Amino acid sequence: MASGIDPTELSAAVGGPDYGAMELIRDRCFARDPLVDDVSFDDPISPRELQVRFVDGFDGADTARLDVTWYAGGAYRFHYVDEAINWRFDRHPNPHSPEKHFHEPPDADSETAVASCITVEEPVLVARAVLQLWRRAYETGSLAELNTAENPP
Fold first, then answer.
1. What's the pLDDT band for 1 if we cut at 50, 70, 90?
2. Cβ 78 vs Cβ 89: under 8 Å
């Protein structure tokens, strides 16, 4: 799978990946979480995506990954993938969903995205919100918890 937001999902330009924002997200949100096994960029020369690997996933998955791309124009993509489940929080212009939206598990279908409960816009706050929502869903074992909060974090 290519990194970042699928170009066919964009109805306006979002700019290139913002390496500085992704560094902040890595250092302030994911570097110290006990369930994070590794945090690295897809390419050390021209990074387009931050890859966060977890030691565990939902429903017995042995591993899980959260792929993060933050764009210079403020758009973002936080895409969770494990052995059987996909979901993602996105912010980008498109013709079929709100600008800030959530693609529900288990398939993260593009055409059925719903409004996101995340309203903050700063990179570190958005990342903290995604991490808190993931953690709550992981700890309760309920995927229904992923997009149900009032203005996290």
1. very low
2. yes
Q: Which token pair is 75?
A: 């758009």
Q: How far is CA 125 from CA 33, 83, 107, 108, 141, in A?
A: 15, 27, 25, 22, 24
Angle among Cα 82, 84, 90 to the nearest 5 degrees reads: 60
User: What predicted TM-score, i.e. pTM, was given to this entire model?
Assistant: 0.91
Strands (E), the chain: 36-41, 50-54, 64-70, 76-82, 86-91, 100-103, 114-115
**DSSP H or E run through 29:** none
> pLDDT tens across 2-54, in order?
567 666 565 456 788 999 999 999 999 888 889 999 999 999 888 999 999 99
Amino acid at 77: R
Which DSSP string do the residues of 118-135 spell out, in sequence order?
A: ----SHHHHHHHHHHHHH
